[in-house]
Amino acid sequence: MKRKLMLLLACLFVGIGLVTAQTQTITGVVISEEDGQPVIGASVLVKGTQLGTITGVDGDFTLPNVPSSAKTLQVSYIGMQTQEV
Fold it and tell me: How far apart are CA 85 and CA 74, in angstroms?
């Protein structure tokens, strides 16, 4: 009985670890379609969450700890149309 209880608890802890590890890191570069130059300071948000960042001087961004269920990014910049990818 004690052995079954320990096995159940071990499986429970492993299951919790797997559920909490369901995140990913997303990286990318935002480039202007008009001239192919990087867009500095564009806002990149994970749709449906409050996770977001802005692009750097090379137009690059990194979003850590994004849930694996997230499927869409919203990219916006002043004077340009918001895009969903």
Answer: 7
CATH of the domain at 73: 2.60.40.1120
In tens, the pLDDT along 5-55 reads 555 556 555 555 555 557 889 999 999 888 988 999 999 999 988 999 999
The total of structural domains in the chain comes to: 1
User: Is 58 inside any structural domain?
Assistant: yes
Tell me, yes or no, whether 28 lies in a domain.
yes
Residue 44 maps to a domain: yes
Report whether pLDDT(56) > 70. Answer: yes
Handedness of CA 66, 43, 40, 84 (dihedral sign): positive
CA geometry: angle at 27 spanning 22 and 30, to 5°? 140
Cα within 13 Å of Cα(53), Cβ side = 16
